[in-house]
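User: Is it possible to get a 3D structure for a protein together with its bound compound? The compound here is fructose -6-phosphate. I've pasted both below.
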Amino acid sequence: MCGIFGYLGGRAASPLLLEGLRRLEYRGYDSAGIAILNSKITVNKCIGRVADLESIVPAELHGSIGIGHTRWATHGGVTDANAHPHMSEDGKIAIIHNGIIENSRALRRWLTAEGILLKSETDSEVIAHLIHRAVGDGLSPVNAVRRALRHTRGTWGLCALFAEERIIVCARNGSPLVVGIGDGESFISSDPQALSAHTQQVIFLEDGDMAVLSPSGVETCRLDGGSSDASVTTIDESWGEADMGDFPHFMLKEIHEQPESLRQCISGRILKSDGNGRLNGLDLTPKELQRIPHIRLLGCGTALHACQVGRLAIEQLARVPALAHVASEFRYNDPVIDSTALYFAVSQSGETADTLSAVKEIQLKGGQVMGVINVVGSSIARQCGRGVYIHSGPEQAVASTKAFTNMVAALTLFSVQIGRARTLSVAQGKKVVQALSKIPDQIERYLANQGPIEEAVEAVKDARHVLFLGRGPSAPVAREGALKLMEIAYIPCLAYPAGEMKHGPIALLEEGSPVVVIAPKDKFRQKTLSNVQECKARGAKIILIHEEGDDEFAEEADIAIAVPKTNGILSPLLTVIPLQLLAYHTGLALGCDVDKPRNLAKSVTVE
Ligand code: F6R
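Assistant: Yes, that's possible. Here is the predicted structure of the complex:
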């Protein structure tokens, strides 16, 4: 989604901004632009990639102060005019904005009536004009931004470049902003990952915070006029290091990183002799774990699918009622919040606006939310205060892969931990944690011998639709497989619990329809086998993900892909891998941009 990168210091700003924007490309965007201040502000912007922007930025564009933006269209089409930065009428203020201004229609009408010619269809442009009017009324840049934002409703990560004062004023409300402090220079970004090449000293702005970048340094304050608590923290250098190595795409690299990222996630968190898990970040005693009446897990997309696996693990291992919720629906259904229950917010980026809103709603109503998050220091992690980092390392491909497996692993460890505090025996706990500790090697073994993925690609790549089926923990895996194939290869996919198929989706099946079935050798296998027969009777082509050695089931399939055997509730950690590969290779076969699928964003910071 939209990205922000700004610079103020002694170096040439334009190459720094272009490089910063390139580091934000993975978030997904459709246009890009920069504003550079020399004797005046010069704006270059266009639709397309940062490389397209680079090709129109003149080499002699001098200036050591600037702001840059990658736009993911919300209000107004994908056009050069709608790309950011947007300028005030006198050309002395340039703004870039992430988020949505909800009352922009009214503001646009009012500004137009005041005689201002709006040059774009965006919600963001109004901010430039509101600031300009406030400056015209004699307000300082900071107070002008304050007044402009008092007139707006919505969310913002905002940077305003002031030509006369030669400063950048930033403000955050619901859309992340991080200030980077260098030696005689400062940076602003929507993503700490873009800063780590320059500095590890950062200030995460909180909602309601403002920051002023000037030649004398960085000052923070509050939008309401008070002083800010924002302080300098040190970020981990490794977050900036993600490159493709020997892989042709980030997605393939991240699929292959799963054994190692899983080791990072579970390392130090397994107590083998006690058959227990230990997630210190939760800071919950066995007594507290015993008292939890029910658990709710919230997430979006892939994270939601991890929640759906996690809730089954919690119910199975701890016998505590658990439910997974679509985070974007949660807040608006006026949920009943139980202050004695435990809520988990699950997110790779830690910036997903839908999930963050749900967290705030729960907290407002007195509930306790823990984060299950990848990006350290992200908004959701900080809002929750407590939780588990999943330690996947940077995930750059838009489609989430290694974060899914680590989310499932972290939630399984929690299930064991709460289970052991309640009714799970040492022997049962041991079985799960021992099986979990073997998974990284098992994924490695599978990746070395992936089975007939290319045949499966041939079966789905020209299909009108693909149906994914699974039962128990394989039902969320079916949803995850469908989501991956749909987002990477643009093939309409439907996922159903296998038993539900005969209640509707079976109508889609005709001769040759591909059906992907996830069926490890667990207690659901026999029933799934019956559903496979029902599909075959209608001419469907079965692509089966099954357990090694289950030849009886494999014989029923047209294409059978075997994964290593594990403990039932852990099977998603293995069965999901061939589905990730299927999506990747199908996307490639169809000529899709697998790392940056159209219309999608890595970090979805609007609701
Ligand atoms: C799918 C995908 C998305 C994300 C979703 C939540 O491959 O990447 O569905 O899973 O947008 O993102 P996070 O986990 O960052 O909250």
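Residues 300-303, 347-349, 352, 355, 399-400, 483, 487, 604 surround fructose -6-phosphate (CB under 6 Å). DSSP finds 20 helices and 26 strands in the chain.
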